[in-house]
Design a protein that fits this description.
- The chain is mostly helical.
- The chain has a domain at about 95-195.
- It is about 80% helix and about 5% strand.
- It contains five helices and two strands, in the order H-H-E-H-H-E-H.
- The protein has helices spanning about 1-10, 20-135, 150-160, 165, 185-195; strands spanning about 140-145, 175-180.
- It is rod-shaped, with a radius of gyration of 58 Å.
- About 0% of the residues are buried.
């Protein structure tokens, strides 16, 4: 292309001193140059537009991939959180049932303690009334837990338990032992034996 231009110049410049022909050549050279520049500019502009379209398409594809990955991660984390919630719920349910059972046992033990305290109170009232009515000739005496009399009474109770209940005897405990002291009857027996 350069050679064509030089040939064109050789043809046009027949007289180097001719200023108008040089000006014409300069103008034509400018026009050719502008045309080539505008063609390059248009080509560059078209390639930039194509690049822009390609980038938009690539960003769209990358956006879809990212969106799909985020949805997959969200589904995975939702499933994991649901598993944690269900595990927590089952643990909580087990602990609640254990707490209810423990509370029920404590209520039963408390009811037994209240019943035992009521029976002990009634026995002591009876003992006091008996002592007052008999002018202290008949009385109930509380036997302490570590004494031999307590152990003998406990052994007698376990020896006299029905065999059907004996298998469950580990549930039976002796709480209190009272000794009935009847001096009035003892005095009569002593008189009877000495007669």
């Amino acid at each position: 292309m350069k050679d064509d231009f030089l040939d064109f110049l050789d043809e046009r410049i027949s007289n180097p001193n001719d200023f108008s022909s040089i000006m014409q050549l300069s103008t034509q050279n400018n026009i050719i140059h502008k045309t080539k520049l505008s063609q390059k500019f248009l080509l560059t502009l078209k390639s930039l537009q194509l690049l822009k379209i390609k980038l938009i398409y690539d960003f769209h594809i990358v956006g879809k991939v990212i969106e799909e990955n985020l949805l997959r991660i969200q589904r995975s984390s939702d499933a994991h959180f649901m598993q944690l919630i269900l595990t927590y719920h089952s643990i909580l349910e087990l602990e609640m049932s254990a707490a209810r059972e423990k509370t029920a046992i404590q209520k039963r033990e408390k009811a037994i303690q209240i019943m035992q305290a009521g029976i002990l109170r009634d026995v002591r009232k009876f003992s006091l009334n008996l002592a007052v009515e008999s002018q202290r000739k008949i009385s109930l005496i509380h036997v302490s837990h570590g004494s031999q009399q307590f152990e003998r009474c406990e052994k007698a109770i376990f020896d006299n338990i029905d065999p059907r209940v004996k298998s469950k005897s580990h549930c039976i405990t002796v709480q209190n032992v009272f000794k009935l002291q009847n001096t009035f009857l003892s005095e009569k027996m002593q008189v009877f034996f000495f007669l």
